[in-house]
Design brief:
Blueprint (H helix, E strand, L loop, with lengths): L2 E10 L4 E5 L5 E11 L6 E9 L4 E11 L4 E4 L3 E3 L4 E6 L5 E10 L1
Antiparallel strand pairs: 1-9, 2-8, 3-6, 3-7, 3-9, 4-5, 4-8
């Protein structure tokens, strides 16, 4: 089994957009996820969802969490993704939230 560490980053918009999808024949472990509010004056709400491909369902991990001006939300517990599972992220304001994930891919 090969292990590959990857970083994923994105600017987050208001629509729930796929941040990361576990590749074919791969189990992915999201070790940490950082959401940073780049607005110095206003709070932003963030939602993180898990799409479970085998169940064809989407469930919330974090729902409408308030991230203060210039602050971050850090998920530091692992989230396991099977093949074709995905993490989706949305924000209450466009272009105010940045996401960075540290992910281990096992093939």
């Amino acid at each position: 089994m090969a292990n590959t560490f990857v970083n994923k980053s994105a600017q987050i918009g208001t629509a729930a957009t796929t941040f990361y999808t576990s590749p074919a024949s791969t189990v992915s472990i999201v070790h940490s996820l950082y959401l940073s509010n780049t607005d110095a004056s206003n709070s932003v709400r963030a939602t993180i969802q898990l799409y479970d491909n085998s169940a064809a369902s989407t469930l919330s991990i974090v729902s409408n969490a308030i991230i203060g001006p210039g602050s971050s939300l850090i998920l530091d517990k692992p989230v396991n993704l099977e093949e074709s599972d995905a993490l989706k992220i949305s924000a209450s304001e466009a272009n105010k939230l940045e996401a960075v994930g540290s992910i281990l891919q096992q093939t």
